[in-house]
Design brief:
By secondary structure, this protein is mostly helical. The protein has a single domain, classed as 434 Repressor (Amino-terminal Domain). The longest helix is centred in the middle third of the chain and has 11 residues.
């Protein structure tokens, strides 16, 4: 999520300070999130998605489900 968060913020043409003002999250915390040094709670992910105009499912890394009868390959 870290690199995607920065991409979404930059696509929205917002600074860390502007995102902080929109979300109530400190610039320091946002910076740590973008660098992958901290993890965001699901609640914070949803809040940031709404403020950045990002579809909420894009914030969650979810493996696709296999169709009935298909095998799901696990990552090596």
């Amino acid at each position: 999520m870290a690199s995607r968060l920065r991409q979404w913020r930059e696509c929205a043409d917002l600074s860390l300070g502007e995102v902080g003002a929109l979300t109530g999250v400190s610039i320091a915390m946002l910076s740590r999130l973008e660098r992958g040094q901290r993890s965001a709670s699901p609640k914070l992910k949803v809040q940031m998605a709404r403020r950045l105009g990002v579809p909420i499912p894009e914030l969650f890394e979810v493996e696709p489900l296999a169709e009935e009868g298909e095998r799901v390959e696990s990552p090596a």
